[in-house]
């Protein structure tokens, strides 16, 4: 492998995600040992469905992906998309480099071992004749695949998968809506991305330069508590402070003459609210749930972002903006998404988050009062006690 300028930093981050620092009296809890499940989950959690990419992006050519550290190849056959372990058991060549030699199969590019797409079983070793003794004795693991919201979803788990709807917010299963979205592969561990999403303090500082907020005031600071409802942890603002005086420093505020004061402290409190969003009765704008999905609800639309672990150092960041409308309002939203939201919010705004997720390096850490959102999320994971993804390289070989 060729060394790159990035390697030392990546190596450092990997070491930090597995290393524990003994707490000392001077720095109580500056590591993640209070949350052992979370601490161990650098590759995420098994037994969940994860959104991957738009279904229409998978064409005739096999698509290789990495999910929770597992190498997977996606292959389309008509309307169906299949997912198989992307490694030929013969000599370890990726099947994603292979050919679609016969219907319903994929052949390894090296010696032509040929696998059924639906079962992963090898059905022919093309270079050893029809009587090859290895025939039928090997196979590759397959993964359950579903298509919802225009996205491909893959289940990484040990048992029969739960219905994919379990891992999709109920409001997206039960209502009509229009959506716009994008996905990226971003540097940084998925836990940093999830924590950044639910982090209470940063929006008021990091994002106060974002074009998306050019005409809306950001609070100076908030008094926050976290409540749990329907499997979501929700950030509730008990008090919103628009300015603050720091003795010896001056006033801290984001108020400007051209900015309007934003919404009340919960989406349902606005004067004019979409009925679906009102029906959710969410006590705060920002919520998070397993296995790593953030919801930011506004009175007229909801933004969702999934932090899908690629490997220990990389996250698949899938973001969608949803409006629960049909007809002309839906068309207008689509145009607004493509003309503005995609670039300002799903682009420049969340790129500020990506920047922080890339450069941050914790633990060790020293938390402050607004970080109760982070600790509530970590505690929630300990309570749910999901199955942590271990090093998958052995598990996926059959
Ligand atoms: S490595 Fe795949 S057939 Fe030989
Ligand atoms: Fe952010």
Question: How would you describe this structure to a colleague?
Answer:
By secondary structure, the chain is α+β, with helices and mostly antiparallel strands. It folds into two domains: 48-148, 3-layer Sandwich (Rieske Iron-sulfur Protein), CATH 2.102.10; 172-384, Naphthalene 1,2-dioxygenase Alpha Subunit, Chain A, domain 1, CATH 3.90.380.10. It is built from eight helices and 19 strands. It has helices at residues 7-18, 36-40, 170-174, 190-198, 275-280, 327-359, 372-384, 392-395, and strands spanning 48-54, 63-67, 70-77, 80-85, 105-107, 113-116, 122-125, 142-143, 145-148, 151-156, 178-187, 221-229, 232-241, 243-246, 250-253, 286-289, 293-297, 302-311, 314-323. The strands form five sheets. Strands 11-19-18-17-16-13-12 form a seven-stranded antiparallel sheet. Strands 2-3-4-8 form a four-stranded antiparallel sheet, with no helix packed on it. The chain has a three-stranded antiparallel sheet with strand order 1-10-9, with no helix packed on it. Helix 4 (190-198) crosses helix 6 (327-359). The chain binds FE2/S2 (inorganic) cluster (FES) and fe (ii) ion (FE2). FE2/S2 (inorganic) cluster binds at residues 88, 90-91, 93, 108, 110-111, 113.
